[in-house]
Amino acid sequence: MAAPRSFTWTRRVFLTLLTGFVLLPVYVMVSSSLKPLEDVSSQFHWLPSNLTVRPYIDIWSTVPLAKYFVNSLIVAGAATVCSVVIAVFAAYAVSRYEFRGKRVFSVTVLSTQMFPGILFLLPLFLIYVNIGNATGIALFGSRGGLILTYLTFSLPFSIWMLIGYFDSVPRDLDEAALVDGCGPLRALFKVVVPAAIPGIVAVAVYAFMTAWGEVLFASVMTNDATRTLAVGLQGYSTQNDVYWNQIMAASLVVSVPVVAGFLLLQRYLVAGLTAGAVK
């Protein structure tokens, strides 16, 4: 059946309004990033009169943005790799094997998502400081400590998500690989992992985006040498002035890796989020 004409026009109007609502902040960011600071600080104009790319040049000298960019890449990349690797092994074990405490483990992993992250801020801070005082291992103020912190958020959800995805992969594939002489690990990497690529990509994107844009723990667990982008952007606000045009420019620059990665992996992400929902 063809859709009624009224429904078609209503859908078009709704989608147009929704698109405008989504793109309006992006346009304000882009236009503000191409204005001198005086124009941004004064009355807002939809069409900028004085276009300049100077804010995109100044963002690298006003604050050490390049250092923050490298820190974010290292922390988010390491947290993503560790989360995916650990989640693959844990989810495969829960999906394919029976062991004592399996149900308790699965429920515990899922229940960790019920608690707000701020509850773990003070305990993790005290743990890191005490470990540093007792062993000399500097977790507080280091990239390694921040990576461990992000794993506490991304790893439980990654495990839970991959369990459902591995359950949707037929067990016959594992059994056929075992019959052909593969061991459990080889069957995992040769058969199950290639079939689960969409789910693994979805987990990786989730873990990366969680670490890339996190502010609360990064503002407490880092120092001047290990500060990430999410916290470093606050450097454009000083006691004397706020460089709004540079803030907009820097926000657009730091969004490029996430947007580019999402566009490249979009088809895997959509498939991974929907797979495993129906068995």
Automatic annotation (TrEMBL):
Pfam families recorded: BPD_transp_1
Report whether Cell membrane shows up as a keyword of the record. Answer: yes
UniProt cross-references to CDD domains, sorted A to Z: TM_PBP2 (cd06261)
Q: Which UniProt keywords apply?
A: Cell membrane, Membrane, Transmembrane, Transmembrane helix, Transport
Protein's recorded name:
Carbohydrate ABC transporter permease
The record's subcellular locations are:
Cell membrane
This protein's GO CC annotations:
plasma membrane
> Which family is this sequence assigned to?
Belongs to the binding-protein-dependent transport system permease family.
Q: Which residues cross the membrane?
A: 12-30, 68-92, 104-127, 147-166, 187-209, 243-265
**In what way does this protein cross or attach to the membrane?**
Multi-pass membrane protein
Domain (ABC transmembrane type-1) spans 69-265
Gene Ontology terms describing biological process = transmembrane transport
